[in-house]
Design a protein that fits this description.
A hairpin with a 5-residue loop joins strand 10 and strand 11. The chain contains seven helices and 16 strands. It folds into three domains: 62 residues; 119 residues, no CATH class; 97 residues, no CATH class. The chain is 24% helix and 26% strand.
Length: 312
């Protein structure tokens, strides 16, 4: 049994680590059982020990968590090499993540029409395009697709419309800028005129320049700057920019082709494409075998449930 005291448990773990290293050395270099060297179980043992045990100048020790591979690469179960340890809000588990898509028309039965089993460490938004491709192959593409916030991004919203003519419905990811965190002027407070390639600040001043660029992650953005003469005398300049010496504001706004094609000025706090005033749709909550939770809604809705593997 595993000891309960921390000191005894650490000593036990280090002894197990030394025993595993000795066993692998006997298999690899002892030459007594060459037929065992390449069997799958030994290969898994070797990989697990490499990830969790270090050997420096003959000294064997258990790796600290910071020295182990990231969760997306670390083997957590010898019975399921694809299972990964993951945390989502207040839930932690070892296993996979299952994404379910359901029909939610008011006058028809609710049917699950797509199931995607993916790595538990994979971000939800990666699955959105995969679900759409599979629905297209099966002939089940909806007009509207309701998704949780984790499946939504500007890129996914545009891709769903342009590739499959799907209206993706849901909350966009939260703004993480310092302006948003400190209740200052974030991008929602600015009015964007795509036709004229300009923006108006909350004080009514028009931007000076408009340029296309890319973020470090290669996402297209629009960089907008305002006149120094306007910003330097503004009584609320501190709500816009921390660069008060130069007095210029350079917010970055992600390009959105759908929003760009809309006519006339658009206030960024109420972008038309986000459909914030959509009529509420039915909600289904239920438990599935080995699942920890499920929440889906809409004409077609995608949510995720967690599928832990059996304890070993």
């Amino acid at each position: 049994m595993i000891p309960k005291k921390d000191s005894e448990r650490q000593a036990w773990a280090e002894q197990v680590a030394r025993d595993g290293v000795w066993l692998l050395e006997q298999l690899d270099h002892g030459g007594l059982y060459p037929e065992l060297v390449n069997i799958p179980a030994v290969d898994i043992l070797r990989r697990v020990w490499l990830q969790n045990v270090s050997q420096i100048e003959g000294q064997v020790s258990v790796r600290e968590p910071k020295d182990q591979p990231p969760s997306a690469q670390r083997i957590t179960s010898p019975d399921d090499l694809d299972a990964r340890y993951s945390t989502k809000r207040d839930l932690s588990w070892t296993g996979d993540k299952v994404h379910l898509t359901e029909t939610c028309d008011e006058d028809l039965p609710h049917l699950i029409i797509d199931v995607e089993t993916r790595s538990s460490t994979e971000p939800d938004h990666v699955v959105t395009a995969i679900v759409h491709d599979h629905l297209a192959q099966a002939g089940y593409l909806p007009n509207q697709h309701f998704v949780d916030q984790g499946y939504m991004s500007v890129e996914q919203l545009v891709s769903a419309h342009e590739q499959h003519q799907i209206q993706l419905m849901g909350s966009v990811p939260d703004d993480n800028s310092w302006q948003s965190r400190q209740a200052a002027y974030d991008s929602r407070h600015f009015t964007i005129d795509w036709d004229q390639a300009c923006a108006f600040c909350p004080q009514g001043k028009r931007s000076q320049s408009w340029s296309l660029a890319q973020t470090r992650s290669q996402h297209p953005v629009v960089k907008i700057k305002f006149r120094h003469a306007d910003c330097s005398v503004c009584p609320v300049m501190a709500l816009c920019t921390e660069n008060q010496e130069k007095g210029e504001l350079s917010p970055s706004c992600r390009l959105n082709p759908i929003l760009k094609r809309s006519k006339g000025p658009v206030n960024a706090s109420k972008p038309l494409i986000f459909e914030t005033s959509v009529r509420p749709a039915p909600v289904l909550r239920g438990q599935f075998p080995k699942s920890l939770g499920l929440s889906m809604r809409g004409d077609r809705a995608t949510g995720d449930c967690l599928k832990p593997i059996s304890n070993i």
